[in-house]
Design brief:
Elements lengths: L1 E5 L12 E8 L5 E3 L9 E3 L4 E5 L2 E10 L3 E7 L3 E3 L5 E3 L3 E7 L29 H24 L17 H6 L3 H17 L7 H15 L8 H15 L2
Antiparallel strand pairs: 1-2, 2-6, 3-8, 4-6, 5-6, 7-10, 8-9
Helix pairs in contact: 3-4, 3-5, 4-5
Length: about 240
């Protein structure tokens, strides 16, 4: 016995609601019930795979569908396939049914009409002119061109020379009294070498080179350095002669 069932709801289904189309068939013990493939077209859409539910000697096949337009829709629900224990199959014929779907829009009384609105007034257009922009550009050019000409005549800016830092003399006498004569000689050698590298007067160069050799010899001598302040003073005097 084949029956075609539709889930009864308190109200008619609306557009987009899930509707279960159910078919029940007799299925003795040992028989298998299988839902066939079903391709729905038009405003009816299948939402998922069908469900097969066994109840004693019967089975129910349910397809979830949705309708996307209100009104009455005729659909043909395929029949389930029964598979006997020996492997033979019985195909149940398809069944046509009608779905009634209500709209999701509110019901409007027949005598309710929307009155036509009066025509909208013409929106005036605004004419745009480039004359104000041209006048502004001319005024800006008249102000900036003389300034640009004056700036180019000035020439590049010359950076002011950095002020010379005052030279700080090392405490030569205190170092010598503390027995650090070699430190005094190191300062004299550094001062004299820098003066030779930046010399401007070549007449004092031989004296500077001779004094530099004496300083180098005194730095590495085995005897204590007693005349370190004097040698430092001679190096300072030659530095003054070599400088501009």
């Amino acid at each position: 016995m084949i029956a075609l069932l539709l889930a009864v709801q308190a109200a008619l289904p609306s557009v987009g609601d899930t509707i279960w189309l159910r078919r029940a068939v007799a299925a003795p013990a040992g028989w298998t019930v299988r839902a066939p493939e079903w391709e729905v077209s038009g405003v009816i859409e299948q939402l998922g795979r069908p469900h097969v539910i066994r109840r004693g000697d019967s089975a129910e096949v349910a397809w979830p569908v949705a309708a996307w337009a209100p009104g009455e829709h005729l659909v043909t629900v395929p029949g389930p396939v029964l598979v006997r224990p020996n492997g033979l199959e019985d195909s149940i014929p398809a069944q046509a049914m009608t779905l009634v779907v209500r709209s999701v829009l509110p019901t409007v009384p027949p005598d309710s009409t929307i009155k036509p609105q009066p025509p909208a007034p013409v929106v005036p257009t605004v004419e745009r002119s480039v004359l104000p922009l041209l006048v502004l550009l001319a005024v800006a050019a008249g102000l900036l061109l003389p300034l640009h000409w004056w700036w180019r005549r000035r020439g590049p800016a010359v950076a002011a020379p950095a002020p010379a830092l005052p030279r700080v003399e090392p405490p030569v006498a205190r170092w010598a009294e503390a027995g650090e004569g070699r430190i005094v000689l190191d300062a004299a050698v550094e001062r004299l070498r820098r003066a030779i590298e930046t010399r401007r007067a070549d007449a004092a160069l031989p004296d500077a080179e001779a004094l530099l050799a004496s300083l180098e010899a005194a730095r590495f001598a085995d005897r204590p350095v007693a005349d370190a302040p004097e040698l430092y003073g001679r190096a300072a005097a030659l530095e003054a002669r070599l400088a501009p």
